[in-house]
Recover the amino acids of this structure.
C-alpha cells in the first residue's frame, strides 16, 4: 500500500499538516501515517491524529534523521511537513523543514501554518521552465492530476532576455508556441491551461497561484538552497497560501544531465541549450 508520511509536532501546525496530508494522499492513491519524533507534547499529537482519523507512530531520536529513514521505505511516496510552528514565527521556514526538503529524495509537501485542506485537491499549479529537468521531475504529479481529472494550471515565465522571437503575427505565433510547449512538456494533461508571464519567475508564480485559486503548487527543484539559488522555492515557501510540493530532480536524470543537481527547475537556469520552445 502506498503511503504518505505526515511528520507532525505538538504545535498549531499539526492540524494543517494532517489535513493536507490527507488531500495529497488522495492525489497519490495512498494512505496517511502520522509520524512524531520524540516524547514532547505526544499527547497533543495523538489527539490531533485521532481527530484526523490517522494512524500515529511515535519514535525516539533526532527528528531529521528519523524522518529521512522512515521516508526511505519503498511504499512511501511523499512526506508532508509544516513550514513552521505558528504564523507569528518570523522565520519563513523552520530549520527542520529546511533540512528535510534539502535531504529527502522523495516529494515533500511543505504546509504553511494557515493552510488547511478539508477537501480533495481540485487544482494544481505546475511552474515549468522549459527544461527537460522540470518536466521529468513533475511528470508523475501531472499524470496523477490529469488522471484524476483535476484542473492543471501550467505557469511559464519568460525572462526578458530569453523571449522567443515572434514576427508581426503575434497572437497566432504565441498560440502556436504555447501549443508546442504544452505538447512537449505536459503531454499527459490535454486539458491543462497555460499561464504566461514576462519577468522574473519568482515574482510571478505566487501571483499566478493566487489568481488561479490552486490548492497545491508542485515544483521540481535541485535541492540547492545556497545563496542565489532556488528563488522560486524560497518565495513560495515563505509566502504561498497553499501547500508546496517539492519534487527533487531524480538521480537517474542527474546521471544523464550532471548539471541537474545544481540547476534544477525552480532555479531559473537551463539544463539545455535554448530551442524552438526554449524559455526560462
Amino acid at each position: 500500500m502506498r503511503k504518505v508520511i505526515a511528520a507532525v509536532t505538538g504545535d498549531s501546525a499539526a492540524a494543517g499538516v494532517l489535513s493536507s496530508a490527507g488531500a495529497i494522499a488522495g492525489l497519490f492513491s495512498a494512505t496517511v501515517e502520522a509520524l512524531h519524533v520524540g516524547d514532547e507534547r505526544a499527547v497533543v499529537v495523538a489527539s490531533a491524529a485521532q481527530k484526523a482519523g490517522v494512524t500515529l507512530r511515535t519514535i525516539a531520536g533526532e527528528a531529521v534523521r528519523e524522518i529521512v529513514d522512515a521516508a526511505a521505505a519503498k511504499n512511501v511516496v511523499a512526506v508532508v511537513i509544516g513550514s513552521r510552528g505558528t504564523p507569528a514565527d518570523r522565520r519563513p521556514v523552520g530549520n527542520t523543514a529546511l533540512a528535510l526538503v534539502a535531504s529527502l529524495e522523495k516529494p515533500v509537501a511543505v504546509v504553511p501554518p494557515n493552510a488547511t485542506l478539508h477537501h480533495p485537491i481540485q487544482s494544481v499549479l505546475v511552474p515549468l521552465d522549459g527544461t527537460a529537468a522540470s518536466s521529468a521531475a513533475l511528470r508523475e504529479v501531472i499524470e496523477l492530476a490529469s488522471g484524476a481529472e483535476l484542473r492543471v494550471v501550467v505557469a511559464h515565465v519568460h525572462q526578458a532576455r530569453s523571449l522567443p522571437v515572434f514576427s508581426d503575427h503575434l497572437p497566432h505565433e504565441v498560440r502556436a508556441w504555447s501549443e508546442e510547449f504544452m505538447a512537449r512538456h505536459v503531454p499527459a494533461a490535454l486539458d491543462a491551461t497555460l499561464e504566461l508571464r514576462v519577468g522574473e519567475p519568482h515574482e510571478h508564480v505566487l501571483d499566478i497561484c493566487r489568481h488561479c485559486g490552486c490548492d497545491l503548487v508542485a515544483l521540481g527543484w535541485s535541492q540547492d538552497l545556497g545563496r542565489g539559488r532556488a528563488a522560486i522555492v524560497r518565495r513560495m515557501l515563505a509566502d504561498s497560501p497553499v501547500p508546496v510540493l517539492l519534487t527533487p530532480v531524480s538521480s537517474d536524470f542527474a546521471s544523464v544531465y550532471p548539471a541537474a543537481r545544481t540547476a534544477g527547475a525552480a532555479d531559473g537556469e537551463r539544463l539545455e541549450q535554448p530551442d524552438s520552445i526554449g524559455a526560462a
Q: What stands out?
A: Residues 170-185 form the longest helix (16 residues). Residues 3-111 form a domain with the Rossmann fold fold (CATH 3.40.50.620).
